[in-house]
Amino acid sequence: MGIRAVLAKPFAAYISGQTKEWSFKPVQSQDKVFNQLIATGRETVFGKDHGFESIKNYSDFKKQVPVRDYEDIKPYVERVLHGESDILWKGKPAYFAKTSGTTSGTKYIPITKDSIPNHINSARNALLSYVHETGNATFLDGGLIFLSGSPELDLKAGINTGRLSGIVNHHVPGYLRTNQKPSYATNCIEDWEEKLEKIIDETLDVNMTLISGIPPWVQMYFDRIQARTGKKIKDVFPDFSMFVYGGVNFEPYRAKLFDTIGKKIDSVETYPASEGFIAYQDSQKAEGLLLLLNSGIFFEFIPADEYFNDNPRRLSIEEVELGKNYAVIINSNAGLWGYSIGDTVKFVSKAPYRIVVSGRIKHFISAFGEHVIGEEVEKAMKFATEKFPEVELVEFTVAPNVAPDEGMPHHEWLIEFANAPNDMQAFSIELDNQLRSLNVYYDDLITGNILRTLKITSLRKNSFIEYMKSLGKLGGQNKVPRLSNDRKVADELIKLQS
Known about the structure:
CATH superfamily of the domain at 364-495: ANL, C-terminal domain
Number of strands: 20
CATH class of the domain at 364-495: Alpha Beta
Strand order of the largest sheet: 6-3-7-8-9-10-11-15-14-13-12
Shape: globular
Helix content: 25-40%
Structural class: alpha/beta
């Protein structure tokens, strides 16, 4: 066992003790964060605009600070971009995380000196939780790869600006840098396919033990290695024992990924966002991700079915219920206030508070009032593939077809199979039945002959890669929407088939 593994164990025990202390005092942990945020926020332009001086409790806060999205905070961000200080948080941000928005173009999400530990320490603690629970730390001694965006940063009003994964790359602890891959130069390559080939060049002869990234892009890395070597990943990297992932639900990719590896390995799921590190998997035995209640973020939750109401309820951590979908609202020491990050979550535990990510608040299909969400299509696919074990998926997305050339309206599932079902019609029926069992409104529409059963459109190899490339979003932290309420993604994918 190497020095990193040896030293990690006592540190993991210390972090685990701290985690247990705050996670079993959830209300006190959140109250402490709330009070700290309001105290600092009073001195900002935003705080003065919203009467922070008179805020004594969460009830006051809700009255004075509305829920908002990026468009609503953009005027404040613009002031920061013009060089002003003390706008959303004290001083100026240390970084801007640059992301793409659907309506606002490029979004600039502030990351402050105070919020950096939330991003860095949370990723570290996810691994240390695993080390403490399992006693396994040997993966820290081998090669570590983080498939991420470029770490090159631009300057906006004197503030370093780039992708979140690139920003985080600058804060990888020194003791891990010596065995981190890829090299800085390779990581800076913008073209994903060129970058991938260089990463393979640098890692093929290295004892890789930890690999981290969004599952579809890790799968692409593995596929290219297999094409080059003709070997399973376990034979290329025999000591590979830890997979860290986030950003998408792993279940649709699990079977193919483990088949490519050639053995089952442990994994740790994380829930990072540009706006903050929300949660991580703290146990291999318990369902869900531990919500980080002591890390500079005060959370609010809006019942997902009320989100678009004029006056939806806003709930604190002590008011949520198990098994219900909530939109996540954050208030943070990055200077985000009443900010809707766009995700929905469901609580699976309150002792401690653990969540599963159920989808995106704006990613749903409700062309006829069915309101099918991401969690439901992913569960339907998971249950269907369990009954058709030969099926291996590359990627899929779902869209409504409200005016087909023939027949009744339906949901269209556009699927790229690594291995297609032996009986496509039977698989389609099973998939539809699973979705009907998960969503009563969808079932009612099928029963009432308003919708016909779903249609599967099987896509040729590399369709999703070509689609993402056409958008300039191949690789890194970019994701294909799991479902949409329009046909923009679906129509572009179909065009690529000709």
